[in-house]
Specification:
Layout: H1 3-13, E1 16-20, H2 30-41, E2 48-51, H3 56-66, E3 73-76, E4 79-82, H4 84-93, H5 95-105
Amino acid sequence: MSVLERIQAEIEGHPVVLFMKGTPQFPMCGFSSRTVQALKAAGAGELYTVNVLEEPEVRANLPRYSNWPTFPQLFIHGELIGGCDITMELYESGELARMIAETQKA
């Protein structure tokens, strides 16, 4: 399985996937930390995350896959939502909570 196939399998295999630097318990950058906090505040229970610092192939290839250059990268229902700024905007507008609630109905 190529790294791009693995990325796709992870995105399709979980309703919410966050590719981040570090882990939810120990984020290794402020953007990843704020994104995790917003997701938890929006009602995301168990987060499926991929630590790109421990996965150099994913870190190198995800920007090509998603056409998004930076981390973190949030995917909901297989769709790229964006990074920290977009996640924070969605959280503040209440939209992120709605999107998270939809993933938990499935």
